[in-house]
Amino acid sequence: MPVPSAAMLRSPSSLRSLIRLLRPPSPRLPLPLNPRLPRYPLSVCPRFLSSSSSSPSPTPGGAGWATYDPLTDSLSASASDSEAPAESDAWGVFDPVWGRIVMQDSLPPSSSPTAVPPPAAAAHGEEEEGAGESEGGEKGKGQASARVARAPTKWSTVAAARKSPGKGGKERSSYVCSNCGEAHSQWWGTCRHCNAMGTVVKYVAGTDGDASAEGSHHIVRSWIPQKSKEMVPQSLQEVNKGINQAAWRIPLSGTFGMEISRVLGGGIVPGSLILVGGDPGVGKSSLILQLASNMLESFKADGSSPVVYVSGEESIEQIGNRAHRMSITSSKLYLYSGTDIEDILDKIQPLSPRALIIDSIQTVYVKSFAGSAGNLSQVKECTSALLRFAKLTNIPVFLIGHVTKSGDIAGPRLLEHIVDVVLYMEGERCSSHRLLRSVKNRFGSTDELGVFEMAEFGLQAVLNPSQMFLTEHDSDSEILAGLAVAVILDGSRTFAIEVQALCVSGSHRSGQVVGIPTKRADVIISVLMKQAGLKLQDNAVFLNVVSGFELTETAGDLAIAASICSSFLEFPIPNDVAFIGEIGLGGELRTVPRMDKRVITVAKLGYKKCVVPKTAEKLLKPLNLDIEILPCSNLKQFINAIFRPQG
């Protein structure tokens, strides 16, 4: 309903009752306020617009304005301009229809808009009054102080004091899954990205303004060695000009360093980001600590840069105790315990290290991103920050990563795409041998394999890994029945492993297979029954690979078949015979890759005979090795050549 024209109040008593209702409530009896109605401050002497004024457009402070005095309970005309309401004051107009005073932000429609001075004029008037105040004495000061006391406080100043980094004073908040780091606009009981329950939490951006927008780029800002405008595309010749590729990599010394260099492709590349993963307790921290000591031994000059080892899981005293046990006493090896990436980079900057080691990547975090250390978003952002740090400073960074129960590195799969090199350390708890395998290498081959042995003082390189899975047996030993030697290739390394078989006739139990794929073993047993004529139907066949090795390569098929035949026929195989080859469903023997390298390794180990497929005879004949090659085309020829009684 539109507000009618202003009218005179009906009686002073009704006006007194209205003012009593509009006064602030007593603290003893709080009155509920309607949140939909705006609240306006009421002055001690409210002013009203009278409709009995003869002036068609009333002027503030002139005719038509009346002031109510609660002491005399009467209305009186305003005598001066000082009683006129300011622009920011609320306008009170009595509505005879509703019987109450209606508060408005602007002049009533019956009033002329020109009657109110504009803000600029009002400010100018205040300045003039301020000038007159200095000249007019105490009277001007009293008027100015009264006007300041009546000026209402703007709500915008209160909102500005509580203003957050978001727009319009609103908090910039989002809901982030602590498991996968996915952001949502509202809260969900189950993350819609990873389907984890109860992991969506509210995240409010910090008070650093755009810190979250900049992200981890702020972390490496102080390390930028050159201006971005100087970076221009360069030709390959310009890039390689003046660089000695042979001496470019950081060298490693000793047999331990040679094994690491083999896996890395010839040494440590400056500015590379290397991730080392493995099962708990396999020796990742010991390996990296020895690597740090080896890097410092290669540069024994007094002015050489140090290597910084940062641990988020151990204190520096615990790291020092492990270094003492491993006889590491280098003075250039610096230890630090921390989990904040920005703090770590700030602390190591004065040292200008030769290499940086982070143990582990799942324990560090970036403050400008949501989530706790170890979740997917934090692992990704920390790795990205360290990658930029490594590329901008040419300092290699080693990261130790946890693995899940499935054997993969914990964190997003993107982590393995970000880094330059991914190394996996493998080994059984019951075995002292450790294998360092390269899964990804941008600076070398992924076929290399490092072989170590865990000793009392740390990891030691195995000098002859080809025979580490072999055991010593006498030629007339009874246990040689059912034992055959296979030659397999793991990366660029060749290993000779022992395969054992046991055939038990009349057993009601099914056979068991250890170290060999069960389906592959079933295929070989079926081929021996069909193509070679062995009566294995009533026998339970047990297979085992010595030393816990996993035989997954098809080059070991012939050794598996030889061990089964030896146990079934109870015919021992001489301990100087090796077997290389794959078995087809027709009983034929097939060649396998790198036959020459396998046979050379067997000859170096002292074997006298080697059974190979017939198709590989031409390839091996030009080698002129001190070993007898026994080529066979199928299983029947193989059995006649090996299990024939010596006449």
UniProtKB/TrEMBL annotation:
Which GO terms fall under biological process for this protein?
DNA repair
Q: Which SUPFAM superfamilies match?
A: P-loop containing nucleoside triphosphate hydrolases, Ribosomal protein S5 domain 2-like
Q: Which residues form the RecA family profile domain?
A: 249-403
The question of whether Nucleotidyltransferase is a record keyword is answered with no
Q: Which Pfam families match?
A: AAA_25, ChlI, Zn_ribbon_LapB
Domain of life of the source: Eukaryota
Q: Show the segment(s) annotated as Disordered.
A: 48-67, 104-172
SMART domains xrefs? AAA
Protein keywords: ATP-binding, DNA damage, DNA repair, DNA-binding, Hydrolase, Metal-binding, Nucleotide-binding, Stress response, Zinc, Zinc-finger
- What GO molecular function annotations does the UniProt record carry, in alphabetical order? ATP binding; DNA binding; hydrolase activity; zinc ion binding
Q: What is this protein called?
A: RecA family profile 1 domain-containing protein
Q: Which organism is it from?
A: Urochloa decumbens
The uppermost taxa in this organism's lineage are: Eukaryota, Viridiplantae, Streptophyta, Embryophyta, Tracheophyta
